[in-house]
Amino acid sequence: MPRAFSLPIEPNWQGLINCLTRSEPPDRVYHIELYLDAENQDAVCREFGVLDGLDADDPHFRLRRYAEIQRFLGYDYVVCGQDSPDLAFHHVVTADTADLARSAGRAYMEEHRGPITSWAEFEAFPWPDPEAMTYHDLEWFAENLPEGMCVIGGQTGHYCEWLTWLMGYESLCYALYDARDLVQAIYDRLLAYFDVTLRRILSYDRVRAVWGSDDMGFNTGTLISPADMRTFVLPGHKALAALAHEAGRPYLLHSCGNLRQIMPDLLDDVQIDAKHSFEDNIESVIDTHAEYGDRMACLGGIDMDFLCRADEESVRERVRRTLDACQPRGRYCLGTGNTVANYVPMRNYLAMLDEGRRYRL
Description:
alpha/beta; TIM Barrel; 9 strands; two-stranded antiparallel sheet; 7-stranded parallel β-sheet
């Protein structure tokens, strides 16, 4: 069996939380990812025998598998929330050209027109009932996670994303001028949904942090104006962060794009505890950590394009350089700039993890 890593890591959720919230050198490098694509998970299992000893007929095999993959890779947590609602978003599907390709193709959100562009479509839409949501996966993890691991509460905070997905980005932009009452009605539905579900998520003791996931920007700015972000997006995150803080949990935010114009809002009003998703063509994680590391944790930041194009030694050198800049100050976790997508070369991803295990101040 090939060996993946130079050094072992024992899971330590308390160390992870301390790393996220305390401005001091952590006891080791902590690793974090929003998720790994299924194809990457399969490749890790095949290459390193991660599933050896697990019973594929176990009714909870899927959840045991996820926990084992996370522990093998050196993560101190799983991400889990309510069981996902089946929302009728509009997708466009094209062929997947990644080395670890998806047989069903790669799906993108339809940007022109979503399922709700009128009041009639709003009324007819099959809205999920937040009071009827189930939490079977979370219940299992709460009872069965390996010692030393925790749950980061997920499946929450999709205000900007779901507005653009439900209306279609183009339709949303028109509606912000022509039908703001409809945008407000959709947003109110999202507020109620995420309020109920996060309260339930926070009732589980194994949930030690909350991860809101909401892409808000592109290369040069926010998807909608900062003023509209302050009306239809940021108050929702403020409410979720307040719930998390009331329960004694940090609130982490994943958002792609250039958020420079709303960073004061995120820090002073929403009061996020960590920011995830960094792109070199916007701002490096090193620069962001230097500017804001005394107020929030910076998560990941090993740029996706770099990971795809670089050789292994370049990846290791960049990891060391990033850790040299961020690790001594605390409030930094190592990871990709976004997620472990199926087009990221596995050798580079594993090299990033291995270099983090080897790093010492």
